[in-house]
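Please predict the structure of the following assembly.
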Amino acid sequence: MILQVKNVSKQFGGLQALNDVSFELSEGRILGLIGPNGAGKTTLFNTINGVFAPTQGQIVFRGEDVTGQPAYNMARRGLARAHQVVRPLSDLTVHENVMVGACFGREGLGLRQAARRAEEALSRVGLIERAEQPAGSLNVAQKKRLEMARALAAQPYLILLDEVLAGLNPSEITAMMATIRAIREQGATIFMIEHVMQAIMSISDHIIVLDYGSLIASGPPQEVANNQKVIEAYLGDPRLTERLMAE
Amino acid sequence: MSFWRSAGFWINVLLVAIGGAVVLLIHQDTLRETVFTILMFVILASSLNIIMGLTGYVNFGHIVFFGLGGYFGFFLLSQLGWPLYLCMIAGGALSVVIALVVGAAVLRLRGAYFALATIGINEAARAFVANFAPFGGATGLYVNFSAYNAYGGSSKALWWIFTLLWIVTIITVVVCYLVKHSRFGLGLIAIREDEDAAMVMGVKTPWAKTAAFALSAFFPALVGTLYFFKNGNVEPEDAFRFQLSLEILVMVMLGGKGYVLGPIIGALAYERLRGVLLVSPLFKNLHLALSGAILLLIVLFMPGGLVGWVRDRLPRLRRWLE
């Protein structure tokens, strides 16, 4: 198991953002995380990632208890992340942005090796011809690729992808899906949040569903898609819709 | 490392190296005093640039390291009779230790809160020193005139002090360049651009910020010791000049924060400008108001300072202006 989340809860004041969430992720798999807006998906990433510590529960990464470890330690242990809201280091070039990932990621490369690693990562995501541009000048799709390249350059064991397909057009989605598959081929494990249903259903080996901070379903994509609770939480109550249509 | 093959490195280093060398060759007292002030500003502004330009933490109280480090160095020199260069290093060491302790606490604050805290630190240090008996309290410390004899009399001592300041300037500029072009520097710039994202990418932000703060604190202490030894005395009002702290900040902004060349150009330009204003009957009481206006104009229209402005207009010069 590369990642074990055991009975994790997170409270913000009176708000229960995560409620007793438990699941496991084995190496080399792609795990999808879906759920309605505000279900706690990004919060779950934040607790795994060390942005904040869980209120209760335990997170085990590669056999070690990492509960409450700060984000920079998680990065060095081999956990990388692409953000939902892209966060380019705007004044740096695209290439330098990716070098930060390589320098401070799992391997902690020196500048010269990091420069080479950054080039590889940029070619993988198809951004190499923009390497010398300031990162702030990229468009949204390119910034998403940049997030991806930064995560890849760290050579992580596990990558958290937070809605990397959101805001992309169909051809960009196809390209990004190919990139994600290629990353998996190279041995990294992937845990991704996605709203583009068709995409996540086709790419994931396994899917878990969050609703109001609780895990309501877990299983292969086909099974989850037909789960009554998921349909209600995610798509609304189908019978209610039918009734309204009939009236 | 291939910094010696970089044009930007040599431009920075040669600018200060030749500037000081010319003064040593011409050997004229008034010129030396002018350039002493410029080099002092270069060191203060360049070191401020490490925490402000690279790391993105605006420090209004940078002068506190000049004051405290200089006070300690001058104390060792005037009261215990230590040799000058040892006093400088001891002053620098104390400054670094204080920055480590203070930084670990204050650097948890971000943005305006950090900036406000730095003002408080300078005022607290001034009040502490003014009431600290071993440092002479409010009247400060004096050096026995015979101390200059060790350097061949006061005239020779002044040239010796200038030479040391010149060397410190070169070292400061080299260090700033190396930091900016190192892995550590890349981490600092990542913090400046987006601290949370930097942390997620693995930059050990609390450590990196504190280290940058401590490094920026080292050089002002060396200048402080030299400056007070040159004057022959030190007192709280002279050591913790908040006004000077603001002027250093204006220099960094004027030249271009984040560039190694920025504070050098900024210090030079500001010193010249101030010289003109101070002797003009119209502006002699208004020069601070004018530097405030300059700061405002830079922030609004030229956020990259002079160096940034030129780099934007002439991309071909980027390789030279780092």
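The CA atoms of residues 103 and 110 of chain A lie 6 Å apart. The interface with chain B takes residues 49, 51, 70-72, 75-76, 80-81, 83, 87-92, 96, 99-101, 103-106, 108, 110-111, 114, 150, 154 of chain A (CB under 8 Å).
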